[in-house]
Amino acid sequence: MPLSILLPMVVIGIAGLVLLLHLLGLSHPATLTGDADARAAWAREFPDDTATRVILSHDHHAALIETARGTGIVWHMGADTTARYLAGAHITRTARGLRIDLPDYTAPHINLTLDADEADKWPTLLKDTA
Amino acid sequence: MANPAKGYRMTDMLTYPEVTHWAVPFFIAAILAELLWIVIKGRGGRYETRDALTSLLMGAGNVTSTILLGFVAYSFFMALWAITPLDLGTSTWVVALCFVLDDLRYYWVHRFGHRIRWVWASHVNHHSSQHYNLTTALRQTWTGTFTFMMIVRAPLILLGFHPAMVLFCGGLNLIYQFWIHTEAIGKLPRWFEAVMNTPSHHRVHHGRNPRYLDANYAGVFIVWDRMFGTFVPELDSEKVDYGLVHNLGTFNPIRVAFHEWIGIFRDITRPDLTWRERLMYALAPPGWSHDGSRDTSERIKRKHLAQHPEDSGTPGFDPRP
């Protein structure tokens, strides 16, 4: 197939599908319904490290997790979640909450939407690991 | 066969259509149909905007890398074609045989792709979505050339299948695999599930459940998995959990495409490793580590059986010794 046909078709196809998905309301981030849900999301990534404490964000899109190995975080990845330990994290205050930079090529930045109290409190909870 | 008078064979200039390119309109239409089915029926899978965008961009990148780097494999194949005295011609039966043998080739390349970290580094992106829909099928590698897995196709060329025919069959194989990346289709008639790779079989392959790891490598014919002992059926009692053992925290296509290569580089350049350990970080199964701090699929399965001994001997788990 000539590139003059293939290229526009791919570009228009991708743009059209993505626009349709967004208009259909399929861009909503995953919500952690409660502590149990956050624990389950953590256990999905680290089944050997039991969560001993969970602190949910007010919007339920992220949670701080404490384990015997240290502090970690669960956060939304689109409609799903993932999790990382926060060893080596660099934390910055942003207008909407916090930005966490991790020394991890597969999860370099986490942008958290937190209220003012959370944005004040979470860095102190993380300082032992950061 | 060779024409000694002219010094070339009738099939030397053989060409076939770029079937994967011609299939792009079908891919777009099928994704649209699956999406509308899911939205209207409220079942049959899930879509999410950023995940789908990443998958589609990976597909576009794969086409780009094939256009840019395809000459490497093709030059290798044409060099083999120049030295082989065999030419099986272009009859329909030869194309059919080529398709079946290339599917056997696919099975082994795919198995290597899950068992050798160097090859996994290229293939991992295909498994990096936590969704399983038709866009996941397009989440393809950008770095396949660097795995050198084109070597596995060498016997086909040397046996007398023209490189263009082999690549044509490989393209048809990939097109077949597109439609099996869906949750909208349940199980198909028993005879079909017995012979062919199906959505059900391939859902298992994309599972991160301990039971479903390293299973169902087939491209078109599931018989290869049945023959080589890697077949695991989809169980009604255990829903497939899609994605990687450690899911990515980014939708950035560059990071999706290259993260495992970066991981290999960082591991093999660590200080205080022996040369054997450096080599193992590149060639051992994913999850291997010199200090045992990571989990391979075998260890994940062993840990699961330690907690769930009742699963021993069930599909996906060997009987405990």
From TrEMBL, chain A:
Domain of life per record: Bacteria
The protein, known as: Uncharacterized protein
UniProt organism field: Roseovarius litorisediminis
Record lineage: Bacteria, Pseudomonadati, Pseudomonadota, Alphaproteobacteria, Rhodobacterales
UniProtKB/TrEMBL annotation, chain B:
Bilayer topology term: Multi-pass membrane protein
Chain ranges passing through the membrane: 20-40, 52-84, 90-108, 156-179
Keyword rRNA processing appears in the UniProt entry: no
Database matches in Pfam families: FA_hydroxylase
Region Disordered, annotated ranges: 288-321
Subcellular location as annotated: Endomembrane system
UniProt GO cellular component terms: endomembrane system; membrane
Keywords: Lipid metabolism, Membrane, Oxidoreductase, Transmembrane, Transmembrane helix
Domain Fatty acid hydroxylase: 95-230
Primary location: membrane
Gene Ontology molecular-function annotations: glyceryl-ether monooxygenase activity; iron ion binding
Superkingdom of the organism of origin: Bacteria
BP terms from Gene Ontology: lipid biosynthetic process; membrane lipid metabolic process
Protein name: Fatty acid hydroxylase superfamily protein
Organism expressing this protein natively: Roseovarius litorisediminis
